[in-house]
Fold this protein.
Amino acid sequence: MASLGELTAGIAHEIQNPLNFVNNFSEVSKELLDEMKTELDLGNTVDAKELADDVIQNLEKIAHHGKRADAIVKGMLQHSRSSSAEKEPTDINALVDEYLRLCYHGLRAKESSFNATLKTDYDKNIGLINIIPQDIGRVILNLITNAFYAVNEKYKRCQAEPAYRTGRPVEAALKYEPTVSVSTKKVGDKIMISVKDNGNGIPESIKEKIFQPFFTTKPTGQGTGLGLSLSYDIIKAHSGEIEVNTKEGEESEFVIQLPV
């Protein structure tokens, strides 16, 4: 995991980026408003309206980057805040399945074109396990959200460029079927939870970095880079382990191991 110095530098860098945008768009907006006042004094209402439209666009950008800074701060607070909830006997199969369905339908509501095949395999012999359901639920939600994002991005790229990173015939690429598989299994005194997708996988060169705070492979503005880091901390707090198995260009699988 990152050292305190690296973490502090990461926080400063990540918050500074959206703040720079806020400051720049604020300064430009002030200049535009000064121009708009001049045009109104001259009776040029058409030009004034065009300037007003530019200001509105800038305000939308300011709001966007302000929300990004807010998300970063909230993510760091989640990192630093120890959970006050207590462990309780929980049906892990029901918990995992609930978050899988919530995540899927939530993404479908936001993006109607999104679709994926869901595969589940729950071990009915697990019974109840002692966890903080809200925290483990947050981890499951994060992993499943990432899985859906991965398959959706691969699907979009396959449609736009059928031979994208596949080396396969165009026909095969066009038949790509986004699939997310979730399973649970009891192995000795451990519970294994797997979230697997057939997206583009994770390059070996960055595999060791994915649990570091602020590290993300998503485009700027689409992720804070705190989800996997927070998930790592939650699983460690449950005396568990989390690891990733991946084949670049083919698939990724995150495996959580929790004590019974």
